[in-house]
């Protein structure tokens, strides 16, 4: 009998290969279910909304007559909100992450804070709405304004940003810190010149993904009173406002079929915005990784 | 040869672990001193007390005295940033920053406030020349340091350490991750540098210590077993344990 022809061995290998094949198919099915569901959703929405996906949607204010309705105020509201919360949540979130990873002593207190942050990342968004209502709308008397909404959303995304920024900072090899300290750098010099440049792609990706979650959020803004009918653009951060998801929610809850088409068109706009943000995250990551 | 580093009755503890026991020695200036011994004997620990890199490990406690040029480096008057500027370090794994070759060397001078382009250019060139890397990289200083080979990266790290104008250069097994030819280049480089710098190196490789160093210290279990001229230590060791180690009976 030659070296490679052992009968029992061949049978057993055939069995192992069969198992491998079955699992391979199973994994493909798992992936397909997710992808197919997403495709079905997209196709359905595009079929419903493509007719309404026209310049009017971007230039008109909401209206009782579907033929004249648009979501100009909602799109602008979402963009303004993003403009306020992006720098706020970036500074607060990354600052907290730097403190926790680089400065804070690893003791029971920081572990407790860490646990709390991770828990907060999973708290339902409506709870942040209630918090925003108490804290900003009533407590600071900011009323149902763009600022209240942006601050509430900042709170909502902070834990997500902190956790993802911490992971990016932790992934920077210790050798890079040592190299910097050994040259006589202070903590901040090491963080700003050695750690952050390496961590930045990861941090930015986390921030953008958190922000893209925020622009799709509805519940907390309903809670603090983002209005459903806003026929003007906010002139200051203390004006009332609406955002895309609220407008979409409003249209969908009307009986008239024409408004459902508008809602679908609104969802297309929202999806495009999300895609653009995720694309920006990928571009940023690639750009910085090339420099590495 | 005068004494530059003076260590007296030094004890170091990591929590409950007594890592260095009653270590005393005088390290001469402008010479190469090698620390040898088996893994975990405390040689790297002692090296890292010389630029206080151990400060960053929680639970480290030190008793005794380390003076560099007559100043106690653990006294309150000493800024650790200044100390590390004067006592440079090269690590076991080449650890260049993911930046250009130029920016790697300029990193240290920039930390200490040098901004002028002309001055930085000059420092980068002198440091790279001192590390015998200039001719290989002068035409692509803007290229990423990570594109260099391991041996070149390690010489870049030496250039980076030299750029802040230190008096002492600590080398923590600086060749153990390199191939034999790169190792040889670093050893030759150390020989050249000892005219201008005091070099303390930790090495796993006894032959390296025998080849390049002037003084050799043999460590075992956190204690100094023997400290003498390299030639003497390798040809005529005083202690039986030293003889056993250098003849390869353990470690």
Automatic annotation (TrEMBL), chain A:
Signal sequence, renumbered to the chain: none
Classification via InterPro entries: MetI-like (IPR000515), MetI-like_sf (IPR035906), Phosphate_PstA (IPR005672)
Coiled coil: none
UniProt keyword Transmembrane helix, yes or no: yes
Entry's localization field: Cell membrane
Pfam families, alphabetized: BPD_transp_1 (PF00528)
Entry membrane topology: Multi-pass membrane protein
ABC transmembrane type-1 domain sequence ranges: 75-280
Transmembrane region(s): 21-43, 79-100, 112-137, 149-169, 195-215, 262-284
Alphabetically ordered keywords of this record: Cell membrane, Membrane, Transmembrane, Transmembrane helix, Transport
Keyword Cell membrane on entry: yes
Membership in a protein family: Belongs to the binding-protein-dependent transport system permease family. CysTW subfamily.
Entries under NCBIfam families matching the protein: 3a0107s02c (TIGR00974)
The name this protein goes by in its record: Phosphate transport system permease protein PstA
Organism of derivation: Paenibacillus plantiphilus
Name of the coding gene: pstA
UniProtKB/TrEMBL annotation, chain B:
GO molecular function, one term: ATP binding
CDD domains the record matches: ABC_PstB_phosphate_transporter
Residue ranges constituting the ABC transporter domain according to the UniProt record: 5-246
PROSITE patterns noted in UniProt: ABC_TRANSPORTER_1, ABC_TRANSPORTER_2
Residues that span the membrane, as ranges: none
Protein transport listed as a keyword: no
Pfam families in the cross-refs: ABC_tran (PF00005)
SMART domains: AAA
InterPro entries for this protein: AAA+_ATPase (IPR003593), ABC_transporter-like_ATP-bd (IPR003439), ABC_transporter-like_CS (IPR017871), P-loop_NTPase (IPR027417), PstB-like (IPR005670)
Cited Gene3D superfamilies: P-loop containing nucleotide triphosphate hydrolases
Keywords recorded for this protein, A-Z: ATP-binding, Nucleotide-binding, Transport
Domain of life: Bacteria
Name under which the protein is recorded: Phosphate import ATP-binding protein PstB 3
Species this protein is from: Paenibacillus plantiphilus
Taxonomic classification: Bacteria, Bacillati, Bacillota, Bacilli, Bacillales
């Amino acid at each position: 009998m030659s070296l490679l022809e052992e009968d029992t061995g061949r049978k057993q290998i055939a069995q192992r290969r069969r198992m491998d094949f079955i699992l391979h198919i199973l994994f493909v099915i798992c992936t397909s279910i997710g992808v197919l569901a997403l495709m079905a959703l997209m196709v359905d929405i595009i079929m419903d909304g493509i007719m309404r996906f026209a310049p009017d949607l971007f230039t008109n204010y909401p209206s009782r007559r579907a033929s004249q309705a648009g979501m100009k105020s909602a799109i602008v509201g979402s963009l303004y909100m993003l403009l306020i919360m992006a720098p706020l949540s970036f500074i607060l979130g990354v600052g907290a992450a730097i403190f926790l990873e680089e400065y804070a002593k690893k003791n029971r207190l920081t572990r407790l804070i860490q646990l709390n942050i991770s828990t907060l990342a999973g708290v339902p968004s409506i709870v942040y709405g209630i918090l925003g209502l108490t804290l900003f709308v009533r407590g600071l008397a900011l009323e149902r304004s763009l600022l209240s909404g942006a601050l509430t959303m900042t709170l909502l995304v902070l834990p997500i940003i902190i956790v993802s920024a911490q992971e990016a900072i932790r992934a920077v090899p210790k050798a890079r810190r040592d190299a910097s300290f050994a040259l006589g750098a202070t903590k901040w010099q090491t963080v700003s010149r050695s750690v952050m440049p390496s961590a930045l792609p990861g941090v930015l990706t986390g921030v953008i993904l958190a922000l893209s979650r925020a622009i799709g959020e509805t519940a907390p803004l309903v809670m603090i009173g983002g209005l459903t009918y806003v026929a003007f653009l906010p002139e200051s951060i203390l004006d009332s406002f609406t955002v895309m998801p609220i407008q979409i929610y409003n249209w969908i809850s009307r009986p008239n079929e024409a408004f459902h088409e508008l809602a679908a068109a609104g969802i297309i706009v929202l999806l495009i915005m999300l895609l653009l943000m995720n694309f920006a995250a990928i571009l940023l990551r690639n750009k910085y990784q090339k420099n590495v | 040869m005068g004494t530059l580093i003076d260590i007296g009755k030094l004890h170091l503890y990591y929590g409950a672990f007594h890592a260095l026991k009653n270590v005393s020695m005088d390290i001469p200036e402008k010479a190469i001193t090698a620390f040898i011994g088996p893994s975990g004997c405390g040689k790297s620990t002692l090296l890292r007390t010389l630029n206080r890199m151990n400060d960053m490990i929680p639970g480290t406690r030190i008793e005794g005295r380390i003076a560099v040029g007559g100043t106690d480096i653990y006294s309150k008057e000493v800024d650790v940033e200044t100390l590390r500027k004067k006592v440079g370090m090269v690590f076991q794994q080449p650890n260049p920053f993911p930046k250009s070759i130029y920016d790697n060397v300029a990193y240290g001078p920039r930390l200490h406030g040098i901004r002028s382009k002309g001055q930085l250019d000059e420092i980068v060139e002198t440091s790279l020349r001192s590390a015998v890397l200039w001719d290989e990289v002068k035409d692509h200083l803007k290229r990423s340091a990570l594109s260099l080979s391991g041996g070149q990266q390690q010489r870049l790290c030496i250039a980076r350490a030299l750029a802040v104008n230190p008096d002492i250069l600590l080398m923590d097994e600086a060749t153990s991750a390199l191939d034999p030819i790169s190792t040889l280049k670093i050893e030759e480089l150390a020989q050249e540098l000892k005219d201008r710098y005091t070099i303390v190196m930790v090495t796993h490789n006894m032959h390296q210590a025998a080849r390049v160093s002037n003084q050799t210290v043999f460590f075992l279990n956190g204690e100094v077993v023997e400290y003498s001229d390299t030639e003497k230590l390798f040809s005529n060791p005083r202690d039986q344990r030293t003889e056993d180690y250098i003849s390869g009976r353990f470690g």
